[in-house]
Amino acid sequence: VMGATDGAAPREGWSSRTAFILAAIGSAVGLGNLWRFPAEAGENGGGAFVLFYILCVALIGLPVLLSETLIGRHGQASAPESVRRVALESGASKHWSVLAGMGVTAAFLILSFYCVVGGWVLYYIGVFVSDLFQTGLTGGAFQGRPASDIESLLPSLFGNGGLMVGLDFAFLAVTLYFVARGVSGGIEWVATWLMPAFFALLILITIYGFATGAASETVAYLFTFDFSKLTPEVMLAAVGQAFFSLSLGVAGMITYGAYAGKDVNLGKTSGIIASADTAVALIAGLCIFPIVFAAGLSVSAGPGLMFQSLPVAFQNMPFGSLIGVAFFVMVAFAALTSSVALLEVPTAWTMERFAIGRMPSAIIVAIGAAILGALSALSFNEMADFRPLGFIPTFAEANFFDALDGVTAKLFMPIGAILTCVFVGWIADTRLIDSENGLDGALHKLWRFLVRFLCPLALIAILVVGLSS
Ligand code: PHE
């Protein structure tokens, strides 16, 4: 076990550097890459969004990612306690831990609705598996059924509150199982088995989509930069997406960094994590768009792109139902390694704060997430008219699910990230920071500059525009 702390019981840790990298990539790669990124790119005009997204990852996401892993690795504790330790060693107020306290809260809230969407993924696995039995191996999916039938699968799922809650609980239960088994025994296990399987499926489906679908149209769409499309809204959508996709602003990377040993070069590792996450987002675009274009469907379907357009597109593809099963299994794997990270953040804190074991902590957090998750699931049907934040103009129209999504994305994540930048860039002892970051020379200077100036300013812009829109 790496990184035992002063006198306390030996802390859990990753069993190797590779395990840390895979788990962190597992946390980053998820519904954000597969569901949100293509949807955002499609809604925000393709190439210009994609290019600006890559810039955001490199100049804003990556510096914050390094800042978070660095705090965790130095602190070797739950996220708030790690921040507190770095603060005290730097002669600063221990109250800086509030930045991670917000993160823990945000991770818990995101977990609750992330598992609801994970439940939709489970539903589509079921739909395609049963279709596979009916239409056989080689044919397209849903033979003989009209496209509108396939598109209405999602609204009919949304109409079924009981099923939505059940699927949410199922996804959460699987997440709980792995988190309860511990860092090296559970979290690391899912990452080391599911991430390679995920990559293999992603590459296979992308090759298939490229070979049979509209490849050149896709490449032109994703990599032609029409700068007139780069409006302030598009830019903000790109920064927000980069943050969500890299799992930043929710103390997740602080928590995972705290299980890393001193032999890990955090600068290099952060670069690997950010590159892998971005590569997966781009490949997800290259996977989904050829299929959608070939079927003559719209790329700007937003959230419906993955759950409605894609299933329709599978209809006429040879092996369509098989591809459907493979595709949604792949999405489930990616989502699970992210939900595991989301559950681990509050679980690690609960264990430490109340000095109780991993199993009871994980169960308590999961029960809380199940309650909020059920309310989110029901906000598509039984509770559709409930406006929990009706008194706040920005969130006045939001149902329970949208309110949690909005509050975490527009408030918690940007504020948490701004405070992280200020803390690492201005407050923490520079010698401590320098000894942890694994960077030297020009790269180090560049990173300092970005964390101190560019990142907080860009994040303040997101916060202001996000709240006023
Ligand atoms: N990055 C994950 C995704 O893209 C979501 C996530 C956010 C996971 C924050 C953990 C922490 O799906």
Describe the protein's architecture and organization.
With 469 residues, this protein is mainly alpha-helical. The protein has a single domain (17-468), classed as Amino acid/polyamine transporter I, CATH 1.20.1740. It contains 19 helices and no strands. The protein has helices at 17-28, 31-43, 47-75, 79-89, 98-135, 147-151, 153-158, 161-180, 183-212, 215-223, 232-245, 252-257, 266-294, 304-313, 320-353, 358-378, 400-427, 430-436, 441-468. The protein binds phenylalanine. The site of phenylalanine (PHE) has 16 residues, from helix 1, helix 2, helix 5, helix 11 and helix 15.
Layout of helices and strands:
Blueprint: H1 17-28, H2 31-43, H3 47-75, H4 79-89, H5 98-135, H6 147-151, H7 153-158, H8 161-180, H9 183-212, H10 215-223, H11 232-245, H12 252-257, H13 266-294, H14 304-313, H15 320-353, H16 358-378, H17 400-427, H18 430-436, H19 441-468
Helix pairs in contact: 1-9, 1-13, 1-15, 2-11, 2-13, 3-4, 3-10, 3-11, 3-13, 3-17, 3-19, 4-5, 5-8, 5-15, 5-16, 5-17, 8-9, 8-15, 8-16, 9-13, 9-15, 10-13, 13-14, 15-16, 16-17, 17-19
The structure holds phenylalanine.
Residues 27-28, 30-33, 107, 110, 244-245, 247, 250, 252, 338, 341-342 line the site of phenylalanine.
